[in-house]
Amino acid sequence: MSKNPTIEARGIHAYYDTSHVLHGIDLSVGRGEIVSLMGRNGMGKTTTLRALVGLIRPREGAVLVHGKDMTGAPTHQIALAGIAMVPEGGGIFPKLTAYENLIMAARPCGGEKAAWTLETVLELLPRLSERLGNMGGNLSGGERQMLAIGRALMTNPDLLILDEATEGLAPLVRQDIWATISRLRSSGVAVLVVDKDIETLATVADRCVVIAKGRIVYSGTPGALAAEREIMIRHLSV
Q: What pTM value is reported for the model?
């Protein structure tokens, strides 16, 4: 677990109707830390992310943001506390231009960290500079994902959560997304990322967390995970 975490889940249990999906999840992400959440399909990764941002309410356990109990808080309050999420598929507004998608999310920066502005987002994601006038629905899959990341950064978050960060994207675009995530570390923005690219996740992340059947079965450095062959084979099919 991280010291002074930006976000922390303590003993989270979550259900869909009567289906018990998460069984006591403990997870934390510290300032500027990149944490990968790994596991096979259907093991509870997306449900964990949804519980962290208030899209589902845990029946047991707690979600803390900067040490404050936010369990059951509405999603917009968690966002205002400094948590931004890019869902699978990005969730951009297809009938707004790229520029409108970005500026509609702009929020002042709190604290002492450097602010994310339209200029700094475009510096991080230069391809968007050429697409500002394009409608969101007319962008390529990679451009939509970059736009979704840029829009999330415009809220000046302390933590960026990415669900299936590079799913379905071309190899060169995936490289751009991973390079962007790596550069965020130096800005002080923490990242919690889910993706199927286990090999690249291990090179980008400071810490890897593996989930299986709604339970955390491993948390540690990528190097230590690589040495856990049973976990790699059993839970990640590597």
A: 0.93
